[in-house]
Amino acid sequence: xxxxxxxxxxxxxxxxxxxxxxxxxxxxxxxxxxxxxxxxxxxxxxxxxxxxxxxxxxxxxxxxxxxxxxxxxxxxxxxxxxxxxxxxxxxxxxxxxxxxxxxxxxxxxxxxxxxxxxxxxxxxxxxxxxxxxxxxxxxxxxxxxxxxxxxxxxxxxxxxxxxxxxxxxxxxxxxxxxxxxxxxxxxxxxxxxxxxxxxxxxxxxxxxxxxxxxxxxxxxxxxxxxxxxxxxxxxxxxxxxxxxxxxxxxxxxxxxxxxxxxxxxxxxxxxxxxxxxxxxxxxxxxxxxxxxxxxxxxxxxxxxxxxxxxxxxxxxxxxxxxxxxxxxxxxxxxxxxxxxxxxxxxxxxxxxxxxxxxxxxxxxxxxxxxxxxxxxxxxxxxxxxxxxxxxxxxxxxxxxxxxxxxxxxxxxxxxxxxxxxxxxxxxxxxxxxxxxxxxxxxxxxxxxxxxxxxxxxxxxxxxxxxxxxxxxxxxxxxxxxxxxxxxxxxxxxxxxxxxxxxxxxxxxxxxxxxxxxxxxxxxxxxxxxxxxxxxxxxxxxxxxxxxxxxxxxxxxxxxxxxxxxxxxxxxxxxxxxxxxxxxxxxxxxxxxxxxxxxxxxxxxxxxxxx
Length: 610
Description:
Blueprint: E1 6-10, H1 13-16, H2 20-36, H3 38-42, H4 45-51, H5 83-102, E2 105-110, H6 117-129, E3 135-140, H7 153-165, H8 175-181, H9 186-203, H10 206-217, H11 226-242, H12 246-259, H13 263-279, H14 288-302, H15 308-328, H16 332-349, H17 356-372, H18 376-389, H19 394-406, H20 410-423, H21 428-440, H22 444-457, H23 464-474, H24 478-491, H25 496-508, H26 512-525, H27 530-542, H28 546-558, H29 567-580, H30 584-597, H31 602-608
Helix pairs in contact: 4-5, 5-6, 7-8, 8-9, 9-10, 9-11, 10-11, 11-12, 11-13, 12-13, 13-14, 13-15, 14-15, 15-16, 15-17, 16-17, 17-18, 18-19, 19-20, 20-21, 21-22, 22-23, 23-24, 23-25, 24-25, 25-26, 25-27, 26-27, 27-28, 27-29, 28-29, 29-30, 30-31
């Protein structure tokens, strides 16, 4: 194919922030798409407006969650770090489809060493998901370039002013704060960094927030500009915590405790430290007792706030945090009372047209607690209300869909999963969940397609590998199943289900010793896994180990509910082992029991007739 089209772009985050390279690429392709096929741009509005914010005046926001229409102070939902992967996948699909229509493109990428992790992730996804015959990305080193003399502080001021006068967002995420940093006014520099951290945090670019925020904090003065200083403290600590860098976040927060006497900010610090102790990325460092102490400090401080509306939000937030801790401590009933207290305050003290995101989050947490307590009707009612409040927020469709699936309403669950696909960025969860519903209905090909796509979106999505391997075994595609097991075990080497599926693959290949080892390891990792005992029992029968077969199949039956669909087959298989061992009376009893559970099974009836 013709490779005449070449674009050369820089990835230096110090120019236009976390998506310097991605934004430049989209500035090349999006105008073409708007002229030729504007619908393709509308399909990817969220990701294009994130990666190339200065195209926002040309790319209409088709999908906007509730928070997009609220003041910044009310936007309390912080995107998870994985949002950048969703963004990258959406951009990759736009680029792939566009180049399939317009022809191949070569991107010469300069300054890759200075790229933000979000841009690096995007480049990796583009290389993985866009065929090389459509897109080639070559990283180049600058040669022969000479930098001009370093501007004076006044020159940095002038350059920052010129960039701001352009009215663009991109430079304000990279070049502007750095020029301000080297200019004459630390206060304006801190403000520039705070603008960048606010924007990046809302997009989920946590690496950028952490870097920008730490630089901004060296310039911020809590006495001269306390709001700017606090904004940098808040954004930086949130980003560092989201990245699993809790120790750094806590240093920022502890230093902040020394520099402010604001009870409101101290309450936020206490809440944040409580969440670190609750959710620490290292399970060994989670401390629910310490978390409870910190959150209680926040509650005590917020309870003293004089304004009822402010108290309803801040105290409600902390009560909600304590509810999470109580849930982790095994007290969902206490957690529900705390969330209800927060909801009651919001209903009483907040005007109907304010803080809708806060109110929605509280109701979502109440839905989760209702479900945990077995109050599924109440939970479903809450999820309906939450989704009605923000129909453009995809994650809640997943939550409601999961509940509907548990209630046996598979079609309604699938409808929710598909709505999540339509309203949100590409992410694996709805496809993984739909695959389970498809598998249960006998649609193995559809289930496999969903799992393949989930892993295309995120090869590290560990939950998909066991299910995919199991489906491949059911389809007699054993070598592919073996490869799926290997891929999954590289991510989760202790996954008992993968070990069990691998054992089934080895049985089919006639490698009985390898199969036995796989089943042994599965049982060692999870002795309550009935299918592993059943598979090892079947293998023992094949190998002539009748006592071992009876033992393992008996254990599988102990772990399986009498009404389970697997029970007749387990009884039948144990009966065959018992009969082969000369224990006819016990074999007959198993067959009669199996026959009552599955009266239409011809094989069971045939054996009963002997």
